[in-house]
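Deliverable D4.2, example record:
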Amino acid sequence: MLFLCNNSVCPTSIVSCPFVKVFYADVYVLPLPPEHRFPIQKYRLVREGLLEQGILQLDELYLPTPISPDIVMLAHAPNYVFSIIDGTAERLVMRRIGFPWSPQLVTRSFTIVGGALAAAQEALQTGIAGNLAGGTHHALYDAGEGFCVFNDLAIVTKYLLKHHIARRVAIVDLDVHQGNGNSAILGGLENVYILSLHGAKNYPFRKIPSTVDVDLPDDTGDADFLAALTRELPHVVAFKPDIVLYQAGVDPLKEDTLGRLSLSKQGLAERDSIVFSTFKHHGIPVSVAMGGGYAQPIELTVAAHIQTYRILKNVYHS
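Output generated by the structure prediction step:
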C-alpha cells in the first residue's frame, strides 16, 4: 500500500515521509478548580516536552478546528449534544462526566473531535498522524462519563464509514479502562473491529462487550500484557481495516493512581513499538489518540505520553 505525502506519492513507504502531523490546541487545557483530580495540564506539558526534546518540530503541530454539531450527532443523541452546547445538561449528567459545564468545555469538546477527525484524515494520506488529546471512549450515545463528553473514536469511525472514506475501521484500545462507549455505539457494526486490553476489575464496572475484550487481572505486568497484545494484533490485521484508531492511554503504568495494572515505562514503550511496527509492516494507517494517564507526580504520565511519540518517530522514520 502506498500513502500520499505532501500530495505526492512516497515511492517506497511511509518511512520516507519527512514529518508527522500532530494536532493540538491550547483549548485542550480546560480551566478547572484547583482541587480537581483530572490532570488537565498534561496536554500542555506533553506538547512542550515533545518540542523541547526535539521529538516534534513546531511545523509538525497543527491547530485543529472545532467540529460541527451535525458530525458529532453521527454518534450522539441530538438532545444530549445541544444540552452540552447551551449548558442545559442536568447536574447529574455533568457529574457523570466529571467536569463542570463552561463555555470553555464546549469549545474544548468540539475541538478535540475536530483534531481526531483531522488526524484520521491525515493518517489515511500519510500513514500516521496523531491528536494530543482524545481517546474519549467512555462517552455513550446519550450521555458522557468518565471525563469524556463526546466519543471522538466513535464519531470519527461513523464519519469515515458514512462518507465511504474507509470501508473498515479498527480501534485498538490499550487504555487501562475498557471503552464501553466505543462498544455501545459501534458494537453492532460488522465493518468495525474493536480490540480492548484493560483491567478486569477497573472502571467501568459495567463493561459493554467489544469485538475482543482481554480482561487483565490486577497487577498484570509487562510480560503478560505484551503476550496478550502480540496474540491479538494479528486478528486485527486479518480484519483488513483501512485505518486503525489507536487509543494509547498510559494509565496501565504501575504508578498510575487509577490503573491497577503494573506496566513499566519500558513495557509501555514495547507496547507502542509492537502496535506501530505491526501496522506499518502491513501498510495500515494509524491515527493516535492520547487516552488516559493519572500518575503522580504528573511528570510520570507526561513522560509516558511523550515516549509514545518518540517510539512513533523511531518506527516510522527508521
